[in-house]
Amino acid sequence: MMLLVHDAVTGLQMRARGRNSRDQPLHLIYRRLRGTLGPQKWWPAKSAFEMMIGAILTQATNWHNVEQAIGRLRRAHALTPQRLLSLSREQLERGVRPAGYFQQKAKRLRVFAEWYLTQYRGRRGQMFRTPWQQLREELLALQGIGPETADSMLLYAGGQPVFVVDAYTTRILRRHRLMRARATYSEIQARVMRTWPHRASVYNEVHALLVAVGKQWCHRRVPDCTRCPLGHLPHTLR
């Protein structure tokens, strides 16, 4: 099962066209990627809790390593907050070791699981009945959860209308001269959320498509602009 899979994005995006000429390049990028790559069906997870711990594990590592760590936790039957908290420190650290910074991430997972149980009884529905702006502040108050991790949880586990900004998004928008070099997380997020309707399905697909480009072509050091679906658009390698 993929969380938050929607296929009704194109119509929403088309109705948003023309609202602001400054934002037309973003629509062009979206149409090009949607047509070339198709629906991404992201985030891959079997439950909301699995998705949320994945968002913590993916900090400062790649998805392949996260998959290995989640696989270990699954084999330990630790993909519920109760079962994760039942693991000893050593067992949890051993489980998340493939994701790197395993001691730090084990602590963060434990803090998050305890909060999730205490505040919301470990229930997704109860958690996401809280207005997303308030819930975002609660998440940001937890040790080791920053804006990208909090927004990933809100969007992909909760279906909340908030766009996730990550290194791939930032790199692509900067290289295509859609954001200034020193634009902040909030500035990039606001730009994207101005461009499309405030719909989680739209933000899900846009973010997933940009991630795909970042992984396959728009590398930090040696970008492959020749093969990139966006390579024909004006851009810089900075």
Specify the number of helices.
13
Q: Under the CATH scheme, which class of the largest domain?
A: Mainly Alpha
| Topology as a string of helices (H) and strands (E) | HHHHHHHHHHHHH
Question: What is the CATH H-level superfamily of the largest domain?
Answer: Hypothetical protein, domain 2
Helix content: 55-70%
Count of distinct strands:
0
Strand content: under 5%
Please describe the biggest sheet, giving its number of strands, its sense, and whether it closes into a barrel.
none
Question: What structural class do you assign from the helix and strand content?
Answer: mainly alpha
- The CATH level-2 architecture of the largest domain is identified as Orthogonal Bundle
Shape: globular
Low-pLDDT regions? 4-19
Average pLDDT? 91
Total number of distinct structural domains: 2
| CATH fold topology of the largest domain | Endonuclease III, domain 1
Describe, in plain words, how this protein is organized in 3D:
The protein has 238 residues and is mainly alpha-helical. It has 2 domains: 9-41 and 163-216; 48-157, Endonuclease III, domain 1. The chain is 58% helix and 0% strand. It is built from 13 helices and no strands. It has helices at 9-16, 24-37, 48-57, 63-75, 81-86, 89-96, 102-120, 124-127, 132-140, 147-157, 167-175, 185-195, 200-216. Helix 3 runs antiparallel to helix 10, helix 9 (132-140) packs across helix 10 and helix 11 (167-175) packs across helix 13 (200-216). The radius of gyration is 18 Å and the shape is globular. The termini are far apart. The model is unreliable at 4-19 (pLDDT under 50).
